[in-house]
């Protein structure tokens, strides 16, 4: 019985793949016909008839061939591309918002059905602020189901799972914000500027800001992350990298901010908390990340010097980004050489 079900599934998959291939052929013919028509129009040789393809017809026909997954705005972008530049190179996957670069030669070993990339939905979120501002950090907080963002000019914002603003504040600091994270035990947002650490108690109903400024910091801070191993309900550990190659460890508790005593504070309280630092690099520390599965943290820099006092490996011209894959148990790095290890 199970073998019969497996065969039915295989047959269905084969039929679906065949139908999709046929749909792609029809779509390619539609594109070719549209390009030919536009070419004749530019040369003044086209005579209008019932088979004329305008945008509405192109959109309707495309969605008939490829299904409702194809969004109107993506079809519009594709149509503009082929009509504005008749010699433009196009790939069918662009209609699904998936682009193949010139250097991304597709391996012949890949099955054709694995080349399809569907985008279920995308959403653009706008937030009132300075037009010259840019987002410097985005952190997802899964257990609370919201997202924290920080902008370069000091706007901290919390979005819910519908990407609606739950809370926002503006840090009154002349220095730019360089990164942010969430403190799971204190339930606050932490952000770093070039010279200070900002802790924002977004839950407070008193002042609009409720920000605690930890300063001064000796060097310019470039990145920040939270250590998630702490089981202390009122303590969080913060890791920060600076522009002199140091990684700092800062431990904050509710006693530092008086979070238990009061929920109404004056704006932007300045406090001093000692930190521990260690020089791990000879250049800017561009990222620091705690890896809970390994019970350690990683940091990367644009330098290529190995410090023997720590576990490290060198990459020519440095590493600008890295990530840990829990399933594969590997660390992936990327640098100026476009090398992925």
TrEMBL record:
InterPro entries found in the cross-reference section: WD-EF-hand_domain, WD40/YVTN_repeat-like_dom_sf, WD40_repeat_dom_sf
Keywords, alphabetical: Repeat
TM ranges: none
Gene3D superfamilies: YVTN repeat-like/Quinoprotein amine dehydrogenase
Record's protein name: WD repeat-containing protein 64
Protein source organism: Strix occidentalis caurina
């Amino acid at each position: 019985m199970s073998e019969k079900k497996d065969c039915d599934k295989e047959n269905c998959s084969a039929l679906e793949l065949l139908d999709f291939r046929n749909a792609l052929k029809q779509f390619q013919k539609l594109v070719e016909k549209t390009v030919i028509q536009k070419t004749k129009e530019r040369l003044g040789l086209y005579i209008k008839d019932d088979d004329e393809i305008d945008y509405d017809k192109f959109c309707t026909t495309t969605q008939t061939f490829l299904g409702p997954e194809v969004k109107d705005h993506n079809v519009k972008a594709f149509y503009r591309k082929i009509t504005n530049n008749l010699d433009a190179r196009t790939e069918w996957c662009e209609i699904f918002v998936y682009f193949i670069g010139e250097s991304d030669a597709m391996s012949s070993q890949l099955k054709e059905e694995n080349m399809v990339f569907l985008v279920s939905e995308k959403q653009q979120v706008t937030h009132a602020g300075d037009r010259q501002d840019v987002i410097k950090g985005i952190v997802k907080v899964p257990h609370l189901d919201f997202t924290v963002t920080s902008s370069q000019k000091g706007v901290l914002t919390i979005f819910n799972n519908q990407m609606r603003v739950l809370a926002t504040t503006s840090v009154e600091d002349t220095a730019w914000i360089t990164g942010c994270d969430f403190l799971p035990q204190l339930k606050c947002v932490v952000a770093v500027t070039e010279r200070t650490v900002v802790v924002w108690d977004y839950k407070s109903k008193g002042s609009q800001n409720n920000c605690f400024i930890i300063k001064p910091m000796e060097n310019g801070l470039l990145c920040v992350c939270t250590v998630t191993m702490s089981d202390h309900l009122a303590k969080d550990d913060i890791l920060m990298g600076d522009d002199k190659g140091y990684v700092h460890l800062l431990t904050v508790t509710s006693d530092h901010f008086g979070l238990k005593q009061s929920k109404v504070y004056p704006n932007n309280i300045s406090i001093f908390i000692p930190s521990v630092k260690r020089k791990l690099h000879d250049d800017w520390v561009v990222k620091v990340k705690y890896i809970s599965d390994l019970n350690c943290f990683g940091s990367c820099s644009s330098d290529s010097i190995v410090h023997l006092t720590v576990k490290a490996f060198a990459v020519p011209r440095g590493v600008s980004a890295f990530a840990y894959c829990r399933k594969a148990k590997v660390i992936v790095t990327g640098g100026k050489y476009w090398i992925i290890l």
